[in-house]
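Methods — Computational structure assignment.
A single polypeptide chain was analysed. Its primary sequence is given first, followed by the predicted tertiary structure written as structure tokens.
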Amino acid sequence: MDDTTNVHPTKTYNDEIIIKPDENLIKEAAKMLVNSKNPGILIGDRLVQTNHPYIPTKLAEILGAKVYSSNYSEMIFPSDHPSYKGNIKLGFNSSDEFEEFDTILAVGGLPRVSYMFSNPRMRIFNPKSQLIHIDNDPTQVATTEKTDVAIISDPSEALKILTTEVESKLDGNTIELVKEKNKILKEEQKINENKIISSLNENYSNSPMTADRMVHEVSEILPRNAIIVNDAVTSGNSIFNFINFNEPNSIFGGRGGSLGWGMGGALGIKLAFPDQPVIAFVGDGTGMMSVQALWTASVNNIPITYIMCNNGTYRVL
């Protein structure tokens, strides 16, 4: 070394940058939603990638809208809310789900998994539907889908303002219609719950046990503050059948199409939340890829409960 000098590192910038929405576009979107006879909402994970996410339960309720998630890797909408209809794979089974809506509000990016399947459906939404798309990434808005209102904004910031704007435009007749819609959504939820329980009971004694029975048994003894790690893939739907997610950080799942992250990911989640029990549902494919996580957990004394969903089928092939 020829010389020395004093270097003072600059302060790390940790402040969150919030992009506010265009007011005129918010008004246009609100008018479109209020005039819609059958609006639908699609929520992506971008919603919870901020410090204080705004979960749009009120917006769904004042519209009487069905809500789907495009990727439920964190709690982006209460899973036991009557408006919530489940998680869908965009470009795989989404076209049928969204055929009925005349107006769609999409929040966050539109990640596709169609490349993983043969004969994929490249169209996500009904081309006759009006589309409102909110995202803070301009490269993701109004790209592959015909978009009527494109709002570049922090999703939570836009949803808060949009909810207020929609509420201000509702008249008495619309409010009464929405009450009837929400009543129907509650009835549909009850019917679906009964179907799940009926299927559980009909197949309860199957050997090997069904994924539904496995998750149901776990749900009966699950600590209230438990965190669920979902890398179960094929058995993943059963988790949402019997465990409700209403609180932030109550569930973590994968955001991409990769398999095998759950074994190691559970380690990081436990380190981030050392005072809460972490239960990881992982498929046998995940176990084959990342079984070394068990060694890491053991050697470093990281207490995690792994539940291996061994259905003997590695379904990626």
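Note: The first strand starts at residue 39 and ends at 43.
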